[in-house]
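Why do we care about 3D structure at all? Because function follows from shape, and shape follows, mostly, from sequence. That is the central idea of this module. The next example makes it concrete: a single protein chain, its amino acid sequence, and then its structure expressed as tokens.
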Amino acid sequence: MARGSTTTRSESDAAESLIGRGARIRGRVHGDGSLRVEGSVEGNIQLAGDLEIEDGATVTGDVEASSLVVSGQLTGDVVSRGPVTIRATAQYAGNVGGSEVILEEGAAFAGRIEAEFDLPAELSERTTGGRGQAPRREPAGR
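And the structure:
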């Protein structure tokens, strides 16, 4: 901060770390804050905070974070306690689980999405026959 400045950084800004363009990390990355990746990481990432993988960045390894935004390239499985956003510029290969998964049109995605959600009433009535329970299925071959 420059002398005489009256601005202060918020706690969330202070807790954010950066792996800059041109930086290459090999090994496990873990921390209590948030992380923005502009360079390259080869190894698992485990954070208490949020992870952002910028356009042009690459991450190869499993990820656990509070939330995730992927604009670059990610290869590995993701477990998020919050939302996962896969931007149009992203290339993602792996399984993803989060409270909410947003896949923008144009993103390259190969994997499985696991998310808990409630069906809208009009859809749940169709699948349960309006009885509030799943339709009964007969075993194959009968």
